[in-house]
Write a structure and sequence with these properties.
Elements (H helix, E strand, L loop, with lengths): L10 H4 L4 H23 L1 H8 L3 H4 L1 H20 L5 H21 L3 H28 L6 H9 L1 H20 L1 H22 L14 H6 L3 H20 L1 H7 L6 H47 L4 H16 L1 H13 L3 H29 L5 H18 L9
Helix pairs in contact: 2-5, 2-7, 2-8, 2-9, 2-10, 5-7, 5-17, 6-7, 6-10, 7-8, 7-17, 8-14, 8-16, 9-10, 9-14, 12-16, 12-17, 12-18, 14-15, 14-16, 14-18, 16-17
């Protein structure tokens, strides 16, 4: 069941995307990811400023992730009746408060609390964005709209985090978080002026969490998200030791740049083709990632093959979030926000699981086992997509 637009659209209006509103959603994703990842690039000055070790400073990232993980489903379930734009503004306001407290706090516990609040805001925002973008357009344009709304996340990782790290080292990490608060305030104004408001769900229309989870297509998509992202994070989390084993430790930054640029290309390709080829593109992305994992396993010592495999991996991963969120939005219909909150939870579990499982594999069996482990996970993912031909990733 596809989401229906909340306002009637004639044929001419249906071909016109609300680009300004979708870019506001994209910038929301940019702020969310940048707020999450910025401490990772500024651990030394943060630890010095708070008088703690770098290991404790690293927990600023951990608390943010925990906030997202535990808050996404409960917050969406509690706010289904609220109008969407005030809810979006409230979540952005959470970033203003959390980043401002982080900028001025000299107490480690208070800073951790602020990061937890920021993570809660992030969990709510990620659950809102895809469904919000889908409601702005006609059903045949939902994939492209979601692709535009999601472009902020990879841009934050490829450009925002390096830029924020440089700015934080030049101006100080506290100034950097203040600038993040200012950016969130300006974004709130943009959302208020350019993003349409939509009603929440009436009490009689709200499905329970169990019924949403049981909707045809929802579980297959969530399974694909969990396993695909788990495979990605096993390798991405430990890419430095993986490259070191291949004799390319000094080229880690260049390898990640290749991955990032290929991801941006993948986002663009998915955005152009997704509304006509959702199933085919998903199959291609999973298969391409599997091929890249296989090549990385046999090409150690061959820099050209490793660069090619990293580009293929980036190309496959860049558009994957858009594919998964679009598939889930179409499967869940009017319950898209609740389903997206489940996706946020599955995604964060996979991130944490990738770090844990990858660490166990690295310690017990070594880096050589990463490639076959990824290939097995991606084979299971591919089979799940193939099986979901009626619901989840349906044949057109």
């Amino acid at each position: 069941m596809a989401l229906s637009p909340s306002v009637p659209l004639d044929d001419r209006e249906a071909t016109r995307l609300p680009v300004a509103a979708l870019l506001a959603l994209a910038l929301t994703g940019f702020v969310t990811i940048l707020t999450e990842a910025l401490p990772a690039g500024l651990l030394p000055p943060i630890s010095a400023g708070l008088g703690i070790s770098e290991a404790l400073a690293g927990q600023l990232v951990t608390l943010y992730a925990i906030g997202s993980l535990v808050a996404a489903i409960p917050l969406i379930a509690l706010t289904r009746g609220m109008r969407r734009r005030p809810l979006l503004l409230a979540a952005l306001g959470g970033f203003v408060v959390a980043n401002t407290v982080t900028a001025f706090s000299s107490h480690y516990g208070l800073t951790l609390l602020a990061r937890f609040v920021a993570g809660m805001s992030a969990g709510l925002l990620w659950a809102l964005l895809a469904g919000y973008a889908a409601r702005m357009v006609a059903p045949q344009q939902q994939g492209r709209a979601i692709a535009i709304a999601m472009v902020g996340a990879p841009l934050a990782l490829s450009l925002g985090v390096p830029g924020g790290t440089l700015l934080g080292n030049l101006l100080g990490w506290r100034t950097c978080f203040l600038l993040m608060s200012l950016l969130a305030v300006l974004l709130m104004l943009w959302v208020r002026l350019k993003v349409a408001d939509f009603p929440g769900q009436a009490a009689g229309q709200r499905l329970s969490l169990g019924r949403v989870f049981g909707l045809p297509g929802v579980r297959p998509v969530l399974f694909v998200v969990l396993v695909f992202v788990l495979a990605h994070n096993i390798l991405y989390t430990y890419i430095a030791p993986f490259l070191a084993a291949a004799g390319m430790a000094e080229r880690t930054d260049l390898v990640l740049l290749v991955f990032g640029l290929a991801s941006l290309l993948g986002i663009w390709l998915i955005g152009v083709l997704i509304d006509q080829h959702l199933r085919g593109l998903t199959l291609a992305c999973v298969a391409l990632f599997g091929l890249a994992a296989l090549v990385l396993g046999v090409a150690r010592g061959s820099a050209p093959l490793i660069y090619a495999a990293m580009a293929a991996w980036g190309l496959s991963y860049g558009g994957a979030p858009t594919l998964f969120q679009t598939a889930l939005a179409k499967a869940a219909g009017g319950a898209a926000d609740v389903a997206q909150s489940m996706l946020v939870t599955a995604w964060n579990i996979a991130i944490a699981g990738g770090g844990i499982l990858g660490g166990v594999l690295l310690e017990r069996m070594g880096i050589v086992v990463f490639s076959p482990a990824l290939v097995l996970l991606l084979l299971a993912t591919l089979l799940a997509v193939v099986a979901a031909r009626r619901h989840g990733f349906p044949v057109r």
